Amino acid sequence: MPPHEGLVHPKEYDWRDSNVELVNSELDHKVKYQSAATEPAWNNGVIGKEPGLYIWRIENFEVVPWPKEKYGSFHEGDSYIVLKTVAVKRQDGDNGTEETDKEDKLVHDIYFWLGAHTSQDEAGTAAYKTVELDEFLHGAATQHRELQSSPSDAFAALFPRLKILRGGVESGFTHVDVNEEAAHVDSLLRIFKHPRAAAGRDGVLIHEVEPTWQSLDEDDVFVLDKGDKIFVWQGKNCSPMEKMKAATVVNDLTLAKHVDVEVLSQEESRSRVVVDYLGGSDVDLLTTTFKAQRPVSASTEREVKKLFRLSDAEGDLSFDLVKEGNAVGKGDLDPKDVFILDAGKEIFVWEGNGASRTERKMWLKVLQRYVARQTDAAGLAVSKVAQGNEGKAFWSAIEA
């Protein structure tokens, strides 16, 4: 049989395989921790010991530190791991000795971010290494799956300027060109408000789009960088917040080079120059409506918050609705089981300290089946939290 026959490429990447007999056993944790202990990215004397924001990109199956000056910029052809560690005051019930009770507790959130055009091998490596990093942190981290098409509020809040760029690094199986080091190529940045951002919140995103006039949208602001000059094109329906974000983007671009900047409103006749540069010399500005699909999904929020329990307390594994609506609260959680919280625009898996081995092993399979039945949930962020290490995002979701 030829070596390629019999191979099937899965349509969707399952970010954490749970259909293995020894998953979450003591041996499983020991093996994973030993692997994590040999990963140079985690063993720098800082990870797990000091608060901060840390980012790595997956390059040829390796975890490579992302330069700090590029924090907030992600390529749509890549996968990344982001670790956010914060120090919080210990609460009643936290484990600790008399000497450590007064010390701050480190809370970790690990996000593995998958670009829209990342390869299967990069996505798989990011997911595996996320689990490994969690093991290195002794299972105390909250794990988040982040998709480029639907970033969670918690992820977006990490970066004052979240920018999505085209291209990506060469991977083990595929190759996407990166133009960062090449001669200048015209770039077009789209600046728009996150479709799910709360009112008044700075939920403005920046995405690099195809530099053609068809990418323009009258509801947003665009920055065209031609190398020797920068144009800002303000759609006639854009918001003041988008205009302000565009100003910060232009400021960043001009720090490294001194070039002219021209700001144009769509309703000005002079705005014709931007459309012309983007190949629209034949476009009639008076009759053309500029509309382009946004690169971020506006997933509809489930109308009612729901909390489900995964339990084998009665012998057989069951998955039942515990409560729904605003009545869901902290008191509905039981340390002996695993719970799935559908918070509307994000899904959380809460693992109690006393959950059984079967419950810990089967939560992902159950979650996948649940999401498959929700027509608007495929692009939602999914987070797994462990009791005692929940973090702000989980408590905000369950107490909202």
UniProtKB/TrEMBL annotation:
Signal peptide: none annotated. It holds the Pfam family Gelsolin. Residues 61-155, 208-256, 331-395 form the Gelsolin-like domain. InterPro entries: ADF-H/Gelsolin-like_dom_sf, Gelsolin-like_dom, Gelsolin-like_dom_sf, Villin/Gelsolin. GO terms for biological process: actin polymerization or depolymerization. Transmembrane segments: none annotated. SUPFAM superfamilies: Actin depolymerizing proteins (SSF55753), C-terminal, gelsolin-like domain of Sec23/24 (SSF82754). GO terms for molecular function: actin filament binding. One of its GO terms (cellular component) is actin cytoskeleton. This is Gelsolin.
